[in-house]
């Protein structure tokens, strides 16, 4: 029995329907102050042979599933199959088949550190062995993208790469320095512009709250300035939550960095959206760490709609805002539009106020446990 194909720890939530193909291990930078994902793990490249062998295995599993008489993605019994790999890999390919086998995500943190000819060879092999794949996406750092020429990026695009997910986090040089992101705002701009010009879809991630309460306005305004110059395909919101074990959490405990409250992050997102001009990006709030998930829309048409949603929270009385925060963070409600105050929420809020210094303190603990 083989061990299956190798998997890294994460993918963007928007790539849930993609099959995962690990082409490097861990993060070549691994110093961002807020990031717990690859800490204490050493970066390495996987060989082209290893990667091709995983592509072969995914293709083989898919073909075997197809060959089963009466195969139905909804009711297949894994024990009945004579696969020579653990069930979990069959299930992953099965799940992928239910979505039409159209997308593939290249793991781990920064695929652009790979040499371009190696990436082209992998992309070409994916297209050959998994012909249903229409969309190939990956994470990459702006620093690594900026080291590739425009021609290299265009070659990657023409070889099948569709989209790059970039953790911009902030457009403020001071905040990028605090976060130890290892990149400047100008490098974010150069990398983003070059990738967009090459025809790749670009997904830029913004972290409301990354600058702490002192730099909250700067985070919104400077990130909007950088985004305006890139005009990425997607802007994705990832609210900052310091995680125990990370340098940012230590900075918070040492009172060198003060977190932005839940309401403060909503004010920051509003200021950010207000300062976005001249772009055609799609903004998505597709992460559980964001308080208000329904802030989604396309610029410029939906800008006012998004501001109105944020205002519908900000204009609530203090008691209503606290109740929504409690309801959302304890899983009683998902969307602001569905929110009503119930006796249960009143009682949870009362308990949290009696046992924590503030609702924000209680919520911070709840959020740390989400992760
Ligand atoms: S580059 Fe990405 S994966 Fe690497 S440490 Fe920073 S946030 Fe984490």
Give a brief rundown of this model:
Helix content is 44%, strand content 12%. It is α/β, with parallel strands linked by helices and 371 residues long.
Overview features:
371 residues; eight-stranded mixed beta sheet; globular; 14 helices; two-stranded antiparallel ribbon; alpha/beta; 44% helix; pyruvate-formate lyase- activating enzyme; binds iron/sulfur cluster
Write up what this structure looks like.
It is globular and about 60 Å long. Helix 1 (48-67) packs across helix 2 (87-98), helix 7 packs parallel to helix 8 (216-230) and helix 12 packs across helix 13. Helix 8 links the parallel strand 7 (201-206) and strand 8. The two termini are 33 Å apart. The mean pLDDT is 93. It folds into two domains: 13-317, pyruvate-formate lyase- activating enzyme (Alpha-Beta Horseshoe), CATH 3.80.30; 318-371, no CATH class. The chain is 44% helix and 12% strand. It has helices at residues 48-67, 87-98, 116-129, 142-146, 150-158, 173-178, 185-197, 216-230, 247-253, 262-274, 303-314, 318-329, 343-355, 359-370, and strands at 19-22, 24-25, 44-45, 103-107, 135-140, 161-169, 201-206, 234-237, 282-284, 297-298. With 371 residues, the chain is α/β, with parallel strands linked by helices. The site of iron/sulfur cluster has 11 residues, from loops.
């Amino acid at each position: 029995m083989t061990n299956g194909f190798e998997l890294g720890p994460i993918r963007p939530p928007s790539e849930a329907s993609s099959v995962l193909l690990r082409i490097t291990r861990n993060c070549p930078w691994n110093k961002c102050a807020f990031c717990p994902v690859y800490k204490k793990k050493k970066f390495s490249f996987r060989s082209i042979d290893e990667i091709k062998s995983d592509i072969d295995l995914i293709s083989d599993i898919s073909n075997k599933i197809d060959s089963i008489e009466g195969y139905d993605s909804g009711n297949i019994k894994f024990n009945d199959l004579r696969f020579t790999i653990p069930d979990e890999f069959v299930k992953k390919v099965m799940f992928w088949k239910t979505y039409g086998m159209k997308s593939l995500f290249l793991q781990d943190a920064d695929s652009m550190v790979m040499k371009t000819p190696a990436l082209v060879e992998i992309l070409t092999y994916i297209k050959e062995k998994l012909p249903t794949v229409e969309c190939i996406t990956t994470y990459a750092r702006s620093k690594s993208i900026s080291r590739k020429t425009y021609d290299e990026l265009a070659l990657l695009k023409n070889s099948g790469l569709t989209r790059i997910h970039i953790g911009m986090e902030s457009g403020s040089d001071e905040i990028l320095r605090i976060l130890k992101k290892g990149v400047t705002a100008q490098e974010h701009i150069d990398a983003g512009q070059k990738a967009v010009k090459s025809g790749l879809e670009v997904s830029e991630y913004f972290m409301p709250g990354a600058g702490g309460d002192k730099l909250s306005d700067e985070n919104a305004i400077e990130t909007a300035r950088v985004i305006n110059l890139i005009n990425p395909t997607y802007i994705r919101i990832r609210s900052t939550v310091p995680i125990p074990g990370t340098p940012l959490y230590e900075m918070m405990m040492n009172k060198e960095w003060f977190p932005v409250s839940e309401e403060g992050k909503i004010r920051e997102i509003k200021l950010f959206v207000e300062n976005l001009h001249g772009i055609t990006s799609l903004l998505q709030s597709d992460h559980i760490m964001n308080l208000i998930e329904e802030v989604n829309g396309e610029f410029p048409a939906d800008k006012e709609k998004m501001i109105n949603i944020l205002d519908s929270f900000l204009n609530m009385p203090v008691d209503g805002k606290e109740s929504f925060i409690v309801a959302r963070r304890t899983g009683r409600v998902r969307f602001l539009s569905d929110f009503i105050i119930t006796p249960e929420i009143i009682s949870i809020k009362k308990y949290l106020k009696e046992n924590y210094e503030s609702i924000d303190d209680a919520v911070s603990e709840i959020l740390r446990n989400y992760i």
